[in-house]
Protein: APC family permease
Amino acid sequence: MATKLSAPTGTTVSAGFQRRLGYWSLVGIGIGSVIGSGWLFSAMYAAQGAGPSALISWVIGGTVMLALSLVVAELGMTFPESGGTIRYPLYSNGKLAAGIIGWCTNVGVIGVPALEASGVMQYASSYVPGLYAHGSLTLQGIIGSALLLAVFTALNYFGVTLFARSNNIVTTIKIVIPILTLLVLIISGLTSHGSAGGINNFADGGGFAPYGLSASLGVIATAGILFAYNGAQAIVVLSGEARNPRKDIPAAMITTIVFTIVLYLGLQLAFIIAAPHASVLKGWGSAMFDSPFGNLALIAGIQWLYWILVADAAVSPSGSAIVAVAALGRTVAAMAKNGFLPSGLQKIDEKWGIPRRALALNFVVGLAFLLPLPSWHAMIGIIGVMIAFTFGIASVSVGVFRRAGITRSADRICGVGILAPITFSAGGLIVSWVPWAQVSNTFPILAIGIVLYAVNHLTQKHGRSEIQGGAWLLVFFGFLYAATYLGSTGIGVLPAPWDTVVVFLGGLAFYRWGTIEGLRYMKANPDIADELEAKRTNPEPGTGFPVHG
Structure:
């Protein structure tokens, strides 16, 4: 029986969202999400886990995200829809796939505003005692974080225009300060005769890769590298509000990712060069600071930079959290439209054009997120792995839409047909590179999502095609858990590099399976093609992006 996917009557997802975002607003959203607390902390945690070879981590993570950005950009510009990263799996593979991916995405991003707020409190503890102690927020720090969450939500609560304007201002400020920081610390580390190790830090402390090159792979998820880059997907989540998605979405995503790769490489280099030589000699794990770049500025005697960083520690995470709250509201509304959450959460306020009920729910859940994980580092491990789990589904959706003939030749970005299976496998690799002890912590979270879907399936009496279209995804997740457990980050039965080879080839096979099941699902539900045709934009010529890929 065909499944009708359109929204109920009334003011709901997409129908009530307002197309007010241009190219620069989309770039501001992407960069505003990417440059959050990650730039303040990730360089330190990456260096602790991989030493100077963390530079490789940023290159690998950035390359994968650039490829993925092209994949999701094709979806966003061809079928623009708010909450699109949750809606596209519904169209290509059905409610099971969309429900599980939506659950993983929601868990992966619902903690972001709380994460950013905790980052603000951690930096603020250097001049406001009592906010952060012994590696976690104090009660005062948690209360301060809750107040920040309220501010982030309020800025989104009164419409996309206020959100875009406030974010553009914040983004302009926070781009300048990281660039200033990396330039000053690199120059200081190379020219001063103080405690900074400079170039010597690349050789001392165990050399360029003190923990082996494999360590540079593991920190992609656990040090916040994947989390930092993943912010660019907020552009696609908000694609339903773009004025010219065919032209602006690919351009904004590529601009964001390329800029971010260069910026984060510079910040990682600055941390390595400016780190105290005495600490590095004890091992990179000794390079531990509550306020990493701020502490390095103090050690170098650059007081003015320290105070700038203290101020920016409130601006950068706040700007990223504002974007995260906006994207998360659309994500929850899209999950409600998919039938995974109560339908009332998809309602769009007619005056302001935003999903207020979804924003309110996320605020409450964000408060709860602060209690069991009261620190930036405690949250980032879980968030990074959950993000990696969601990597591949956009690639499968692209493959299904192309093979079904829904994505026309004129709408195809050159090279995406090749990149789609590769990025799918890359997502599996990132999970397998994380130590098993951390990956295993996500199993109960995924199990809860499966139970929620089972209840939803039984109560709403979905057809068999909904299960058949997404069952492969659950098998794929099981494959990743098994491969990680048996691999070099687990019990070592499957040593490196063979564990990587197995996961990559397995990923290609699962990509093929997922596209086949997607085609069967769309054949069983022919109304989907009509829905997607209704969402298609009429792209203008001369976009600057080669097609026929």
User: Anything to note?
Assistant: The longest strand covers residues 132-133. The two ends are 34 Å apart (CA to CA). Residues 302 and 330 are 42 Å apart (CA to CA).
